[in-house]
Amino acid sequence: MPRYKLTIEYDGSRYKGWQFQKNADTIMGKLMDAIKDVFKISNFELYGAGRTDAGVHALGQVAHLDIDSAMPPYIALKRLNEVLPVSININEMIKVNPRFHARYDAKYRSYVYHISKRRTAFGKDYSWWVKEPLNVEAMATVCKQYVGMKDYRSFGAPDKEGGSTLVKIERAKVFEIDDSVLIHIVGSHFLWKQVRRMVGTLVQVGIGKLTEGDVKRFFNEYSSLPAKFTAPAPGLYLERVYYAGETISEEPHWLINI
Questions:
Q1: What are the catalytic residues?
Q2: What CATH number does domain 3-96 carry, 3.30.70.580, 3.30.420.40, 3.30.360.10, 3.30.70.100?
Q3: pTM, entire model
Q4: Rounded mean pLDDT of 117-141?
Q5: What ranges in 84-208 are assigned the alpha helix state H?
């Protein structure tokens, strides 16, 4: 059966996350409805590179679609986007090797978190307005601690009981542009809520409630504090999924085009 790679962007503010749920609106559910509508086929498989939680957005989510159809990808792309809600758009649809797997072949996942330093009309669903003054320099310094292979047990839970909490963070950097603070984190994979807890911890550093030493201790011994600092979902964006042969960008795609 032919396999297609889909690159998808979506506004997750009105959805209960990526993963299909019977009695809830999800990104995957809307895509499945569109596929059934366009191809008039119910026998297909759609598999995402990773799950995003309710309220989280994506600039470059990746999925693979197995479907038996002779429809050219460029026509299918056009027709799918015509029936999808305006909050979901497939940016690219290409035929790939049947052995390609959106999740298991992914080398890195890149996230961007958007913090606003002021009240904004676009704040509630797309950023986190932090009212306290932020020491962005201190945040940038502590953010460097995240890089490398480390035990993130204080920052999230594994997919299954007894699973590893070791995560390799390839890049972690803080950018400040006018009234926005963008936190870019690239990792091999992520534990549940890990990125939002990493961000929330940095904000605590920025407002002066945590020190560099405090964050270091979160890696040396388990602490429940990062869970209390979990950043709100609306500021989080799955920026890109990287596969073999692709070079990690020094700056997130969103920052380049902001």
A1: 53
A2: 3.30.70.580
A3: 0.94
A4: 92
A5: 123-126, 136-143, 194-206
